[in-house]
Specification:
By secondary structure, the chain is an alpha/beta fold. It contains 23 helices and 24 strands. It has four domains: 97 residues, Beta Barrel (OB fold (Dihydrolipoamide Acetyltransferase, E2P)), CATH 2.40.50.140; 89 residues, no CATH class; 191 residues, Rossmann fold, CATH 3.40.50.300; 177 residues, Rossmann fold. Strands 2, 3, 4, 5, 6, 7, 8 and 9 form an eight-stranded mixed beta sheet that branches. Strands 13-14-12-15-16-11-17 form a seven-stranded parallel beta sheet, with helices on both faces. A six-stranded parallel beta sheet has the order 18-24-23-19-22-21, with helices on both faces. Helix 5 crosses helix 6 and helix 18 runs antiparallel to helix 19. The structure holds adenosine-5'-diphosphate and magnesium ion (MG).
Length: 726
């Protein structure tokens, strides 16, 4: 689409937050397309495209400090006029010498002959680059440079943006700065004044400016605090609003029924905790003058949440309603379908499975069954987000259950609520969330907590080892397989990550400028899996599963593993969610220091699901105190809640946000909490939630005139239609 650029007065366009990036000077169709690929469409998106790190150019190094392999800033005066030479076909090299008070260096540019017009003898520049040795001296090749102009201070920190094909750092920086210049003068600050004052936050304009072009680290740090606060505050407000919205809704009547037909089919008795939460759920569902249920069921992996959902579904269906069960992956949907159709099918409840991959004809049949009011009505539909499709309509939906909720973005939850405004909602999460966190993250939900495991569960013996144990570990893996067990090996990422440059200042370390935790190199999972199959276990079946595979391929591998045809499954964390393979007896986690504790706990929960004695081996070469302490926690603690609390203490709330917001990135369709997932300040987070609660109590629908900009911001974040908020 071609957007015609309209010129306003003085030749500049009238730009607002909602102008397309295409409207910026220097952004044509192809750059606009490149921006669109990373989710940036408007100027608003652009000024909220936050740097992933900063180069610290404020610390000037002397040339005499010599080589240390890292890029650094140098304040140099040009000594000689630049000279260009063709060194081979199509390759020019431009050189000149420069000096500081401690020594001289040769500065070199390749295929950038135009720098001859930039550098002249006597001029001073700040360079940023890596020194390399030459015959008898040093060279600075293709450094970044900024002219020193008397009276104009150079910024200490230079933003580095997440890059994408077709967009260099310079292009992004230019576009961001142009957008800031255009938008900031008229930008409204939506944060209520009293809150801003109470926490001494900078204005929104100043904060945004400081994040992209920080004057110094103190300014940057307060700006980041403000933005993180904003995100959490608006997030919590959105939750509160959506709750207020449901209070007026009509709740389906699902009064208590005789549960014994269902309970009698279970091969076990419910635990006390299961009975308690089931009562809470069934109470909520009675309806009448109450609002629809809005409840999250949290409980450790394997504590038996599914049966609680089954009981709620049973009560909904027996009282004339339908139920929907939404899960994040097809693997999990299949598993639930098998389990629940076996349990409920014989009780005369019609269960259907609806997946993205379900053939269109079958989908049509299921949709018809969902809409039917007759004997052929589908009572329970289990599926992935295919359930969110507009084409699926229920004749009498009374209950919606989502499992492993953290995999769905907040936005999906909002979509689901909007679709079934008056149905009961039960959200199940296997991520043990500390209570205080749950209040913040799920402010719109009542919390039920299963804090007891079914009897007779065995502990997964956990060991922490370093790479020197590798041979022994391989032997142990082989023995597991020979004894009829199966092995999971989880690696942190599919490819070697080359992104980390030593001079970066990652956002999450802002407070600890110099404290850099050591990070052993990632095992390239792909190569590792191939190596295991070829060199170590040629006689066994080793397969590899990763997040970028097509859903059907993942399913196929997972099915073979579940069927016992695959002995060793190497994977990235895609197996994390709820998969049940009772024969799996060993979980090996490579580079274990890279995982959050709660995530490790989830992974460990994949084994020990059958009668077999099970093990978890955490492999890590990290020697940092924090890393060691975290792994030690895993070795000695088995309670998911204690682990989650430790995680919160040690790493801050970041991980929980990441989980709650499906990665925190807008591409995923989850709400984009850009920075909060890096937030390590629990107090700030709670303050934001607390202020949101106060604001919502005073003005539940944000209809006060002073709250208009705030309301607009919250609506934008949640992308909820105007009408549904009032
Ligand atoms: P999660 O809470 O992780 O979803 P599940 O619902 O999958 O856990 O339950 C894990 C296993 O525990 C299942 O095999 C289930 O049959 C079993 N289970 C659930 N409740 C009980 C109980 N009260 N006593 C014994 N086993 C139970
Ligand atoms: Mg489950």
């Amino acid at each position: 689409m071609v957007v015609k650029k309209q010129k306003g007065e003085n030749g500049m366009e009238k730009l607002t937050e909602s102008s397309p990036v295409r409207a910026l000077p220097g952004v044509g169709d192809s750059r606009a397309a490149a921006f669109a690929r990373i989710g940036i469409h408007t100027l608003r998106d652009l000024i909220r495209h936050f740097p992933r790190a900063y180069e610290n150019r404020g610390a000037i190094r002397r040339l005499s400090a010599g080589l240390d392999g890292e890029a650094a800033a140098f304040m140099l005066t040009v000594a000689t006029e630049p000279r260009s030479a063709n060194i081979r076909r199509g390759m020019t090299i431009t050189k000149f010498r420069a000096f500081d008070e401690s020594g001289t260096v040769e500065v070199v540019f390749f295929n950038q002959a135009y720098v001859k017009d930039v550098f002249h003898a006597g001029a001073q520049f700040r360079f940023f680059g890596k020194l390399s040795p030459t015959r008898g001296g040093f060279q600075l090749a293709s450094p970044a440079y900024e002219a020193v102009i008397p009276g104009v201070p150079l910024p200490s920190f230079v933003a580095k943006y997440p890059l994408t094909e077709g967009l260099s750092g310079k292009i992004i920086e230019k576009a961001v700065l142009a957008a800031l210049r255009a938008v900031l003068p008229t930008l409204e600050d939506y944060l209520p004044e009293d809150i801003r004052e109470k926490y001494s936050f900078p204005t929104l304009s100043y904060a945004l400016m400081s994040i992209h072009a920080p004057r110094d680290s103190a300014t940057l740090s307060t700006a980041l605090r403000r933005v993180v606060f904003d995100e959490l505050y608006c997030f919590s407000l959105g939750m509160a609003l959506s709750r207020a919205q449901r209070i007026g809704a009509f709740a389906p009547l699902c009064p208590p029924v005789d549960l014994s037909p269902l309970l009698n089919r279970l091969p076990y008795a419910l635990t006390g905790a299961q009975q308690r939460v089931c009562n809470e759920i069934l109470q909520d569902m009675r309806g009448g003058d109450r609002p629809p249920m809005n409840r999250i069921l949290i409980g450790d992996v394997g504590c038996g949440k599914t049966v609680c959902a089954a009981i709620a579904i049973y009560q909904a269906v027996r009282t004339g309603h339908q139920a929907a069960l939404m899960v994040p992956t097809e693997i999990l949907a299949n598993q639930h379908y098998k389990e629940l159709s076996a349990l409920l099918g014989d009780l005369g409840i019609r269960v259907e499975l609806l997946l993205g991959s379900t053939p269109e004809r079958e989908k049509k049949r299921i949709r018809a069954a969902a809409e039917s009011e007759g004997a052929d009505r589908a009572d329970l539909i289990i599926g992935t987000h295919a359930l969110l499709s507009d084409k699926l309509r229920f004749s009498a939906l009374g209950l919606t259950v989502t499992d492993e909720q953290h995999r769905f973005g907040v936005r999906q939850r909002a979509a689901l609520k909007q679709k079934q405004r008056s149905s009961h909602l039960l959200v199940m999460s296997a991520t043990p969330i500390p209570r205080t966190m749950a209040l913040t993250l799920y402010g719109d939900l009542d919390v039920s907590h299963i804090d007891e495991m079914p009897p007779g569960r065995q502990r997964v013996a956990t060991y922490v080892v370093n790479d020197s144990y590798r041979e022994r570990l391989y032997g142990f893996m082989r023995r597991q397989v020979e004894e009829g067990g199966q092995v999971y090996i989880v690696c942190p990422a599919v490819e070697e990550s080359a992104e980390e440059e030593p001079t970066d200042l990652p956002l999450d370390r802002l407070d600890l400028l110099d404290v850099r935790e050591e990070r052993p190199p990632l095992k390239a999972a792909t190569a590792y899996a191939a190596h295991l199959q070829r060199e170590v276990f040629p006689d066994l079946s080793v397969e590899f599963l990763h997040g970028r595979m097509k859903a059907a391929e993942k399913e196929a591998v997972m099915r073979r593993f579940a069927a016992g045809e695959v002995h060793i499954l190497v994977s990235t964390t895609v197996i994390e969610v709820g998969v049940n393979v009772p024969r799996a007896s060993l979980m090996v986690v490579e580079n274990a220091e890279r995982f959050g504790l709660s995530q490790l706990h989830q992974l460990r929960g994949r084994v020990g699901r059958g009668d077999r004695k099970s093990y978890c081996v955490l492999v890590s070469d990290a020697t940092g105190d924090t890393a060691r302490a975290r792994l030690e926690t895993m070795r000695t603690t088995y309670d998911g809640y204690r682990i989650a609390e430790k995680d919160l203490e040690q790493r801050g709330p970041g991980d929980f946000f990441a989980a709650a917001c499906s990665g925190g990135f807008r591409q995923s369709g989850g709400m984009s909490l850009h920075l909060s997932y890096l937030c390590s300040d629990t107090a700030l987070m709670h303050a934001a939630a607390e202020e949101a609660r106060k604001t919502a109590a005073r003005d539940p629908s944000l209809s006060l005139p002073t709250h208009a900009p705030l309301r607009a911001e919250v609506e934008r974040l949640f992308a909820i239609e105007e009408a549904t908020l009032s």
